[in-house]
């Protein structure tokens, strides 16, 4: 089956904050629009008090950048804008500039499905200042949400400990686009399937589902509803058993299982959507086993998340498959990732990169300056630390020091010759041309699962995870400190 790509083939240039356009205009007026800059997209804290984050959304970013342009309707709308005095907001010459704008940025990014951490760039954008600025809002819109949901999904699937997790949050998702993006991100995070048929069509995600309570209520009895469903789908019989009475529902499912067996078919399982899931799943398991259906699965749903799932596992609930909806696709307990997009360097008239730092009264809001990358170190196949470093830094020393960006007492020595390593940022666009081969979504999902395996379980635990070490290479740390002091006029 052909998988549909390029969700957004028309212009989305106006999917931005108005101040991005006013800044772009001011850059153009001041002659700075073509000055080269570097911006980094990153987040400051792992979501959900997690010990890790899963990168997602890059595929949408690629579509956006490939189709980045201002079409005639966009330009007409901007031309009609007026200031308070009635004069045009934008000079006609600027409108013409936008009409002729040709995307030419370099974009390097962490691949989807990668395990990432605070302060490390997810995306690095280099190019004309005006173009870099215009990419801020759409990139944040895309990456914030999908990364958030992928991380939630990964946390849930880790707690499921190998059990299939089905995503079916479409009806509770934040609109049509939010539902599609959430289904995609949930799959990246480890979910096995989605109920969202359009997401299945667009992205190639396996789709799954059986029937609702309304199906049972549409018949004169629960048994009649089961019989009719089995007649329509004899090879996909998972019966929802809690419409009226869960125990009687299981009994009716068993009766149907016996009828199916007589026809050479099989009862795949039951679903419980309410009540004490630990109790009813165990009762159902005993009933199914005693009736000769040990292979029938028990599916559970009902506003589940990783915390409830963990609790049910501790209670030894006999649940084989987990259906997760609202709390996954809405990232229920944290509505936003809080990723930001900050300038890190600006090229001067001599062609030299000048590192830029934003100073704040809150140390967490002080960005990391310079044209930098992230290197991950491994020992015996396990990730041991990440180092943020300037691209032109000599890393040939036998020992390197990484320093926590907010606590200089937290330091770690790295011996590169004794460890494996890789740079986390990979080229996506070079001078506006896509150079990255987009992987299949199923491969991205597998990347998430295999990448998580490379981290110690202490970093993945649900409560109070151990903090994975991420730091600045020593010379970058000192550069940042000096720039902050200079900005505060302490030197």
Automatic annotation (TrEMBL):
<dbReference type="Pfam" id="PF04095">
    <property type="entry name" value="NAPRTase"/>
</dbReference>
<dbReference type="Pfam" id="PF17956">
    <property type="entry name" value="NAPRTase_C"/>
</dbReference>
<dbReference type="GO" id="GO:0004516">
    <property type="term" value="F:nicotinate phosphoribosyltransferase activity"/>
</dbReference>
<dbReference type="GO" id="GO:0034355">
    <property type="term" value="P:NAD+ biosynthetic process via the salvage pathway"/>
</dbReference>
<dbReference type="GO" id="GO:0005829">
    <property type="term" value="C:cytosol"/>
</dbReference>
<dbReference type="InterPro" id="IPR013785">
    <property type="entry name" value="Aldolase_TIM"/>
</dbReference>
<feature type="domain" description="Nicotinate phosphoribosyltransferase N-terminal">
    <location>
        <begin position="14"/>
        <end position="144"/>
    </location>
</feature>
<dbReference type="InterPro" id="IPR036068">
    <property type="entry name" value="Nicotinate_pribotase-like_C"/>
</dbReference>
<keyword id="KW-0328">Glycosyltransferase</keyword>
<keyword id="KW-0662">Pyridine nucleotide biosynthesis</keyword>
<keyword id="KW-0597">Phosphoprotein</keyword>
<keyword id="KW-0436">Ligase</keyword>
<comment type="function">
    <text>Catalyzes the first step in the biosynthesis of NAD from nicotinic acid, the ATP-dependent synthesis of beta-nicotinate D-ribonucleotide from nicotinate and 5-phospho-D-ribose 1-phosphate.</text>
</comment>
<comment type="similarity">
    <text>Belongs to the NAPRTase family.</text>
</comment>
<comment type="pathway">
    <text>Cofactor biosynthesis; NAD(+) biosynthesis; nicotinate D-ribonucleotide from nicotinate: step 1/1.</text>
</comment>
<keyword id="KW-0808">Transferase</keyword>
<dbReference type="InterPro" id="IPR040727">
    <property type="entry name" value="NAPRTase_N"/>
</dbReference>
<dbReference type="InterPro" id="IPR006405">
    <property type="entry name" value="Nic_PRibTrfase_pncB"/>
</dbReference>
<feature type="domain" description="Nicotinate phosphoribosyltransferase C-terminal">
    <location>
        <begin position="373"/>
        <end position="479"/>
    </location>
</feature>
<dbReference type="InterPro" id="IPR007229">
    <property type="entry name" value="Nic_PRibTrfase-Fam"/>
</dbReference>
<protein>
    <recommendedName>
        <fullName>Nicotinate phosphoribosyltransferase</fullName>
        <ecNumber>6.3.4.21</ecNumber>
    </recommendedName>
</protein>
<dbReference type="InterPro" id="IPR041525">
    <property type="entry name" value="N/Namide_PRibTrfase"/>
</dbReference>
<dbReference type="Pfam" id="PF17767">
    <property type="entry name" value="NAPRTase_N"/>
</dbReference>
<feature type="domain" description="Nicotinate/nicotinamide phosphoribosyltransferase">
    <location>
        <begin position="167"/>
        <end position="348"/>
    </location>
</feature>
<dbReference type="GO" id="GO:0047280">
    <property type="term" value="F:nicotinamide phosphoribosyltransferase activity"/>
</dbReference>
<dbReference type="InterPro" id="IPR041619">
    <property type="entry name" value="NAPRTase_C"/>
</dbReference>
């Amino acid at each position: 089956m052909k998988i549909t790509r390029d969700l957004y083939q028309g212009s989305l240039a106006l999917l931005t904050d108005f101040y991005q356009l006013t800044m772009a205009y001011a850059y153009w007026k001041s002659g700075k629009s073509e000055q080269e800059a570097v911006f980094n997209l990153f987040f400051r804290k792992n979501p959900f008090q997690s010990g890790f984050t899963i990168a997602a959304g890059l595929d949408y970013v690629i579509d956006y950048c490939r189709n980045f342009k201002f079409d005639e309707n966009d330009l007409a709308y901007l031309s009609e804008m007026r200031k308070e005095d009635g004069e045009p907001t934008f000079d006609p010459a600027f409108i013409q500039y936008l009409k002729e704008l040709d995307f030419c940025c370099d974009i390097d990014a962490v691949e989807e499905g990668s395990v990432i951490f605070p302060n490390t760039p997810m995306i690095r954008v280099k190019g004309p200042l005006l173009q870099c600025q215009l990419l801020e809002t759409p990139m944040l819109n895309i990456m914030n949400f999908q990364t958030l949901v992928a991380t939630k999904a990964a946390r849930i699937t880790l707690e499921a400990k190998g059990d299939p997790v089905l995503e079916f949050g479409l009806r509770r998702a934040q609109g049509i686009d939010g539902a599609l993006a959430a289904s995609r991100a949930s799959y990246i995070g480890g979910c096995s399937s989605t109920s969202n048929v359009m997401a299945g069509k667009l992205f190639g995600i396996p789709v799954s589902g059986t029937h609702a309570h309304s199906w049972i209520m549409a018949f004169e009895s629960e048994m009649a509803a089961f019989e009719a469903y089995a007649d329509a789908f004899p090879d996909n019989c998972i019966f929802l058993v809690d419409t009226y009475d869960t125990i009687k529902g299981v009994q009716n499912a068993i009766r149907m299982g016996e009828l199916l067996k007589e026809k050479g078919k099989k009862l795949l399982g039951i679903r419980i959507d309410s009540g004490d899931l630990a109790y009813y799943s165990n009762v159902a398991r005993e009933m199914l086993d005693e009736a000769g259906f040990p292979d029938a699965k028990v599916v559970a749903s009902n506003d589940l998340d990783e915390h409830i799932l963990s609790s049910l596992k501790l209670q030894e609930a006999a649940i084989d498959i987990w259906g997760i909806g609202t709390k996954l696709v809405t990232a229920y307990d944290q509505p936003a990732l809080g990723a930001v997009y900050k300038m890190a360097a600006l090229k001067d008239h001599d062609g030299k990169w000048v590192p830029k730092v934003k100073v704040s009264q809150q140390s967490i809001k002080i960005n990391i300056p310079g044209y930098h990358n992230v290197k991950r170190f491994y020992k015996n196949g396990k990730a041991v630390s990440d180092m943020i470093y300037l691209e032109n830094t000599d890393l040939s020393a036998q020992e390197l020091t990484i320093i926590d960006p907010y606590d200089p007492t937290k330091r770690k020595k790295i011996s590169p010759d004794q460890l494996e390593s890789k740079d986390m940022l990979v080229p996506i666009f070079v001078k506006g041309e896509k150079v990255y081969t987009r992987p299949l979504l199923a491969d991205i999902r597998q990347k998430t699962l295999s990448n998580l395996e490379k981290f110690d379980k202490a970093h993945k635990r649900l409560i109070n995870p151990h903090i994975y070490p991420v730091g600045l290479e020593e010379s970058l740390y000192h550069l940042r400190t000096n720039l902050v002091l200079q900005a505060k006029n302490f030197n």
